[in-house]
Amino acid sequence: MNLEEVLKLKRIVFYDGDCGFCNTSVQLILKNRKTDFYFIPLQSDKAHQIMSRFNEEIKMNTLYLIEHQKLYKKSTAALRIAKNLRKAYPLLYYIGFIVPPFIRDWIYDQIAKRRHSIRPGYCAMPLEEEKKFFMA
């Protein structure tokens, strides 16, 4: 898939592919999604190409979401992802936006600093039917 085709996808999640906590979060999204999400590790060339289109310098401790060709990051990205999941996850979206972004992002940053110790060294291989949602 070329860069233009990738950018036309509705929801693309960029995550730290070397982070066990991040990989666990990707698995949670896959298991609870109401809609399609596509995943690109931040370490990939494709991530760097796409982020340069948004004039965004990649930070490994940041979750990014491109939704309908608009870039979101940190807590706002996480909440927008939650909105498109099943079960009670969409409630996080509505409750989370009550909290001002600078507080949400401070909490996000505290978790991001500790992400490697929260769930170290875990990287599940996607199931065959999930592989189409991963790009490098």
Automatic annotation (TrEMBL):
Q: Name one Pfam family in it.
A: DCC1-like
GO molecular-function terms, A-Z? protein-disulfide reductase activity
| Membrane-spanning ranges | none
What stretch or stretches form a coiled coil here?
none
PANTHER family, A to Z = DUF393 DOMAIN-CONTAINING PROTEIN, THIOL-DISULFIDE OXIDOREDUCTASE DCC
Protein name as catalogued: Thiol-disulfide oxidoreductase
State the organism of origin: Brumimicrobium oceani
